[in-house]
Amino acid sequence: SAELCLLPALAALLPPLPGPGGPRPAELGLGALPTDLRAAVRALVGDLDSLFSALGLREESFAVGALSRVVAAELASYAPARNRRRTATNKASVIFVDRTLDLAGAVGHHGDNLAEKILSVLPKLPGHKIDVMVNMVELTALKTTDETCNIIAPGCLAQPNDPAAKALWESFMNLKQKEAVMEARRHLVEAASRENLPIKMSMGEVTPEQLSSYIQLFRNNLRALENHCGLLQLVLATVQTLKHPQTSKWDNFLAFERLLLQTIGESEMPSVLNQLLPMIKSYSERTKDDYACEDFLVLLIYIYSVVGEIKCGKELDTAEEEVKKALVKAICDEPEPSPLLQKIT
């Protein structure tokens, strides 16, 4: 979007976590990093220099975190970047922040943002780190209930050639969810009116079913489908996200995170972990509303990220051991472990 540019080629670039025997943050220089990470940092510096060249920027760099300091230092001493800074006409401040300093932000569920939910719940487009697969079967005459139907190529979110879709995506990123869904309806109604489709405008709350019924109007009209294909893909992504079971869990996550913040304020870490323990259930005991193994990993990252200094002791060791045991049992009982669990195990 106009305000956000992602660099998916570097999605796996993470600062090394401090561990026994590893370099302390203060000593961290490019030479102290593992070979793969050194190569990734150099690639990032080269990519940023290309980006700044295209924008004609002369940057002043600031860094928050150990790896960010390495990246900023490399960019400052990179020969092509030095030449560019001599001739560039536009000034910019660039702030590098280590991703591991805000894990709570990355795993939390505080955002009331439709784009974030679409990117979180829909399956990734093969070969892409960011874009998602939008099931397009609804626009065809195929009678299939198979979620993974792959006869029809999936849609996606990137619609650079459709001005209406680009405007709608900006709404998804910048507005609250309720307003963004209303924008989706407005764009659909305008598109249908332009194609003289028999649309009945209704007021009140927008439901996924209502959006689906509007989409159906385009189904047998090839010209209308072609004219508004980008827009229809984004609205289908909205419908599929709103109906997704993970979206209804979003509010449960948010409620639990708020409860955790209260509990952490009032008590020690062991009691927080003991609260979590009875909720860790094996596959055979879980209902659709219960948390799965990945959900607990996300919650644990959240807890340990927001808690600050943790007092070590026997009570904490016991509580952590119980949570570990329950998680290991739950992971081992999974009939079909997800790719993430397979990677972890």
Can you walk through the features of this model?
19% of the residues are buried. Helix content is 53%, strand content 5%. The chain has three domains: 25-101, no CATH class; 114-243, no CATH class; 265-344, no CATH class. A two-stranded parallel sheet has the order 1-2. With 345 residues, it is mainly α. The chain is globular and about 65 Å long. The chain has 15 helices and two strands. This is SCFD2 protein. InterPro entries: Sec1-like. It comes from Sylvietta virens (Green crombec).
Radius of gyration: 24 Å
Number of domains: 3
What does the average pLDDT come to?
A: 87
With strands numbered from the N-terminus, the spatial order across the biggest sheet is 1-2
Q: Helix tally? A: 15
Helix percent reads: 40-55%
Run of helices and strands? HEHHEHHHHHHHHHHHH
Largest sheet: 2 strands, parallel
Given helix and strand content, the structural type is: mainly alpha
Q: Which percent band covers the strand fraction?
A: under 5%
Protein name: SCFD2 protein
InterPro entries: Sec1-like
GO biological process, one term: vesicle-mediated transport
Organism: Sylvietta virens (Green crombec)
